[in-house]
């Protein structure tokens, strides 16, 4: 899930020449081109004045007139629904190559009145890191060239730049050690700059908690254009950026993370069960087992439509050997019927490839690839579940799953280490008492032909699930952003309006986030459709 940053409106004042004899269309086109050129040229001049050295910044800027503009934008944005030709496009894309370039970009955007977004991986579910629905004129600062990773096995730490992906981090750790890892997301193309700001969970969430629980330090550019580390920013701001969502408090440059131990041998398995094979009763049992079983075992569920039925896939990682896993399963979840033949013993880095869907035998170097995920059109929503969903509730869900072309529902268990955190330890509040997180997706490839149909389906499913999930507030995960909850309006964020999604993402932590935002960014330099608002001064 990427980070998102916004700044104030572009200054649209333009000096006019006496061109009244030209047709109106020509005049308007000339003014548009002149204004665009002025913004780009002014931005470059300002960057040179505010950077640590003179740099050919034009080589880092892509305008719509540049043949590479579309490929640069499309390579970063991950949701094709928001990359359609009809979707809003930035006036230009800036791809900084150093921290000082990002720092200068914030200073210059403020000075010139330029509204911008910041993109680290492009996985924001609503694309607010590369699309603006509230501003007709904006630029994108793409951190794709800031991907350095410094792994120090001796201290069990690493410094990671914001543009690096999960896959790159996992590979660079593996280069140094086969018995170290990091508990971030399963998707290997996630940009770490934005992913960690929302909390970030993966297959080791029950053993080591969220990625933010394993962050030791950070470097950010704040609203004044200063580069701050943990000591300089203070503990309040450091708390806010570890789970408070991207795009509200600054631009993440670096994370310092704590590496975690993993065994030399881990075990993975996938077992499929259809409705005809008793999937409903088995899933009812999974809800009682998965959050409470040995913390070294993570069993997630994929729910999909296959032909005219529903298939549930039990997809698991065990931090240990198959023999130990089979003993645990025989005692805790014999109903699944797991056998030694179902189990694959492997290394932790190869388990990363397994969960990411790469074929058996894939070289781990694939994790260094620029684009690892097949892009599709999609809309997502989420829930947190505290009590088991009864069989009648599951049966109603099945009836809805079989009506959609390509639905995907993923249930990932919590418990274990997650039970040891309070709701306020980080802005991410869904800890103790949460059995699992539910992700709902509708995915399609037919472009904008049936968008309404697919979005209506996911909204209906989400509405149906309301009685079975958390309430007061009904929790949702900020990294699965959902603009159906509401949006900030142009030039304005309201504490009351933003509380609709603020409490659902952060519960009572929303109030502390607002106070921190008011202190560190009272002018609301960093904002987007669902950013944290400052209180009126």
TrEMBL record:
Name of one Pfam family that matches: BBE
GO MF annotation terms: FAD binding; oxidoreductase activity
Cofactor (UniProt): FAD
Signal sequence range: 1-37
Source taxon at top rank: Eukaryota
GO biological process, one term: cannabinoid biosynthetic process
UniProt keyword annotations, A-Z: Disulfide bond, FAD, Flavoprotein, Glycoprotein, Signal
Domain FAD-binding PCMH-type, residue spans: 86-262
Family matches, as InterPro entries: BBE (IPR012951), FAD-bd_PCMH (IPR016166), FAD-bd_PCMH-like_sf (IPR036318), FAD-bd_PCMH_sub1 (IPR016167), FAD-bd_PCMH_sub2 (IPR016169), Oxid_FAD_bind_N (IPR006094)
Annotated Gene3D superfamilies: 3.30.465.10, 3.40.462.20, Uridine Diphospho-n-acetylenolpyruvylglucosamine Reductase, domain 2
PANTHER family in the record: OS08G0158400 PROTEIN
The family this protein is said to belong to: Belongs to the oxygen-dependent FAD-linked oxidoreductase family.
Name under which the protein is recorded: FAD-binding PCMH-type domain-containing protein
């Amino acid at each position: 899930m990427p980070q998102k940053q916004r700044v104030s409106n572009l200054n649209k004042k333009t000096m006019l020449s006496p061109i009244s004899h030209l047709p109106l269309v020509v005049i308007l086109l000339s003014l548009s081109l002149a204004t665009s050129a002025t913004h780009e040229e002014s931005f470059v001049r300002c960057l040179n004045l505010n950077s640590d050295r003179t740099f050919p910044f034009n080589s880092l800027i892509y305008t719509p007139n540049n043949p590479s503009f579309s490929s640069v934008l499309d390579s970063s944005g991950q949701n094709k629904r928001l990359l359609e030709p009809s979707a809003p496009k930035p006036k230009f894309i800036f791809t900084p190559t150093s921290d000082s370039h990002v720092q200068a970009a914030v200073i210059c955007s403020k000075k010139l009145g330029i509204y911008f977004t910041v993109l680290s991986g492009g996985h924001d579910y609503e694309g607010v890191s590369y699309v603006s629905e509230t501003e007709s004129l904006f630029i994108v600062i793409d951190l794709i060239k800031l991907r350095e990773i410094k792994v120090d096995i001796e201290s069990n730490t690493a410094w990671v730049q914001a543009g690096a992906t999960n896959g790159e981090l996992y590979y660079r750790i593996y280069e140094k050690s086969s018995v170290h890892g990091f508990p971030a997301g399963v998707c290997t193309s996630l940009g770490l700059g934005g992913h960690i700001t929302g909390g970030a969970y993966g297959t080791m969430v029950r053993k080591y908690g969220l990625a933010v629980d394993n962050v030791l330090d950070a470097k950010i550019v704040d609203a004044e254009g200063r580069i701050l580390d943990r000591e300089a920013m203070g503990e309040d701001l450091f708390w806010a950026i570890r789970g408070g969502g991207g795009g509200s408090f600054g631009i993440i440059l670096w994370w310092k993370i704590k590496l975690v131990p993993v065994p030399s041998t881990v075990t993975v398995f996938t077992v499929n069960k259809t409705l005809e094979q008793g999937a409903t009763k088995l899933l009812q049992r999974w809800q009682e087992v998965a959050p409470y079983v040995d913390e070294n075992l993570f069993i997630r569920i994929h729910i999909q439509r296959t032909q005219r039925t529903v298939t549930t896939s039990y997809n698991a990682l065990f931090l240990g050997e198959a023999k130990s896993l089979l003993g645990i399963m025989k005692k805790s979840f014999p109903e699944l019927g797991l056998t030694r033949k179902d189990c694959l013993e492997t290394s932790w880095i190869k388990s990363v490839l397994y969960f990411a869907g790469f074929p058996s035998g894939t070289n781990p170097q694939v994790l260094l690839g620029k684009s690892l995920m097949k892009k599709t059109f999609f809309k997502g929503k989420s829930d947190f579940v505290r009590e088991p969903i009864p069989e009648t509730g599951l049966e109603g869900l099945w009836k809805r799953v079989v009506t959609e072309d390509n639905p995907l529902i993923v249930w990932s268990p919590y418990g274990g280490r997650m039970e040891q955190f309070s709701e306020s330890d980080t802005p991410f509040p869904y800890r103790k008492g949460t059995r699992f997180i539910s992700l709902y997706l509708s995915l399609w490839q037919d472009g904008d032909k049936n968008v309404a149909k697919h979005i209506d389906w996911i909204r209906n499913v989400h509405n149906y699930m309301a009685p079975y999930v958390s309430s007061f507030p009904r929790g949702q995960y900020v990294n699965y952003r959902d603009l159906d909850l509401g949006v900030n309006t142009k030039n304005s964020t309201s504490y009351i309006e933003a509380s609709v999604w603020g409490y659902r993402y952060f519960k009572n932590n929303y109030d502390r986030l607002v106070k921190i935002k008011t202190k560190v960014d009272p002018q609301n330099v960093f904002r987007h459709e669902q950013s944290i608002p400052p209180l009126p001064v």
